[in-house]
Structures are given as C-alpha cells and as structure tokens.
Design goal:
Interacts with IL8. Interacts with GNAI2. One of its GO terms (molecular function) is C-X-C chemokine receptor activity. Its main location: membrane. The structure is a single chain. The chain has one domain: Rhopdopsin 7-helix transmembrane proteins. The chain is mostly helical and 356 residues long. The two termini are 29 Å apart. The protein has a two-stranded antiparallel ribbon. The protein is built from 13 helices and 2 strands, in the order αααααααββαααααα.
Amino acid sequence: MEPYLDLDANYSDYGTFNPNSVAAKAPCGIDVMPPVFKYLVAFIYGLTCLLSLVGNSLVVLVIAYSKGNRSVTDVYLLNLAIADLLFALTLPFWAVDRAHEWIFGTPMCKILSLLKEVNFYSGILLLAGISMDRYLAIVHATRAVTQKRSWVRFVCVGIWLLSLILALPVIIFHEAFLPTEKMKWVCYENIGWNQTSEMRVKLRILPQTFGFILPLIIMLFCYGVTVHRLYQTKNSQKKKAMKVILAVVLVFLVCWLPYNISLLADTLMRMAAIAETIGETCDLRNSIDAALSGTEILGFAHSCINPIIYAFIGQKFRNNFLKILVTRGIISKEALTRFRRGSSFSSTSGITSTTL
C-alpha cells in the first residue's frame, strides 16, 4: 500500500491551495527528516534487501528441490518467496530515495512502485489461500482435494492477476516529478492539483477493502476454526505444521497492520471524519505522516522475515536444506543423520508442507 504525500493543499510550497480539502484548513510547514535518520532508514533497507535475497532464494531452492514431495502449501509459500524476492530488488532504489531523492526517472518509478504494491497484495492473498487450504484439509478433512496441486496453480495465477489489478492506479498515476523548486524529486502519484485528496481517497478505498480487509477476515475465520479443531485432536504433527503457518501470518500482521491502521487514519482525516475531534490539523497531519513513514519501514522489513521463521521453526525446511547440502557434497551424510536423530522429523507426515 502506498502512502499519500500531501502535495495539494496546505502551503505555497505544495502547490495550489484547495479550500475543499480537510488538510487545507491550516497552513503547515514541511517536516524535514534528520539526515541521520535518512541514512539509518537507507541502511535498514539495504540490510533487508541482502537478507531477503539470501533467505528467499534458499526457500525457492528448497521447495524446487523437493518437487516430488511438494504440497499445496508449498506452492503458496513458493509464490510468497518469489514476491518477496521481486520486492527485495526494489529496496536499493527506495534506500537512495530515502537518503537523497528520486533520481531514476518515471519508467523506473512506475515499475518499482508496481512491484512494491503487488508484493503487498499478493502476500496477504497468498496467506489467505494458505488459510483456506489448511481449513479444508484439517476441518473438513478433504485431504484428497488439497493434495491435488493442479488447481492451486490456477489460484496462484489468479492471485497475481488480482494483485496487478489492485495495483493499477500505481502504473497509471505514478511518475517522477518535482512538486516545487524548494522540494526534492519524488516518485509519487501525480493526479493533479484539483480534488487531489478526494481522488486519492477513492483510489485507496477499493484496494484497501479487497486487498487487505477481506483477506484478513478470511484468514481470521479459517485459522480460528482450524486452530480450535486442532487442539481438540491429538495430532502433534499437524499442530507443529500449524505453528509455522501461524507464525508467518502473525509476523505479516505485525509488520503490515500498523501501516494499514495509519493509512486508515489518514483516509479518515481526508474524509473529515476525525479532523474535527482532534486538535490542530497540522499536528494531526504531521503525526499521521510520521506514522505512515515509520510503519512503512516495518512493512518493508517483512520481506526478509519468513525465511528466518522457516529456519528456526520449520524442521522440514532445515532437513531438506541439509539434504541439498549432502547432495552437493558440502556436508556429510553422517551430519544429516545426526540432525534427524536430534529432531522429531518424520518423513511420513504427508499432510504437512515440505517447507514446514
């Protein structure tokens, strides 16, 4: 999801004054980010990029290597890793943007912004797909259906297409431009100086509804029922597999929910729903802008976390990674045998994911 820079309404440095905008009720200065903070954020983006490229490449390698033992969940997780890999490639550009300004032109602005949006939407939609798969496999015991991988490929293609559709406003409106001579170059949507806030709100509500709120509701329902059913049974293998999935979902929410709450607050402010009840408009706007900026960093960092979850919680992921190392002659078979003895790994649990 893309934060919305307030270019339309408050100050001579921002363009034409728009009296219909809520944000225009009080003239506001421009908050300048301290240079140290800019470079710190750029460093975080660079580190996230490195960890994401290494970690998600390993996830793709492990799942691709385990082709004969790949489950429906693995297909979803493979697509999730690919989405994070594509997004990681954009992070060096956003790091330069944070530390300096946008220097890469309009075509790169559109492409990289698209990848960022698609990563977010595909991420939560894929997690919603996993939640439905686990719900069917565990609650309704439709193992025969969930083990068929042919249909899940079409679901994943549909998720990528829907993510592209939800991200279309980015391709249409984003460009590199200089708002005024006193500001730096930005990669942002350039809708125009009239009714900008109103247009941004309209472009935001539909993707936020179908790209975050509805998938979140699906995930909460499916996992709520699934976890309740699991803890009524004594199947410890399924419980262990669900721990990894729930950790992935929880981390996604921790990373992206604060940003979406900040985005919702910004939407409500622009719709005049909260501006009348909270003091100074400028203070409110500056606080929300700071929240959007800070929580976006947390959202970006999410792209490198899933492989860490698999490595520390997913026994099968570690086992299959070690098998690859044995095949390549990097470690001995004895080391793999010792690892298996030291873990509760079982090769007979067909219902669980290769990655988990």
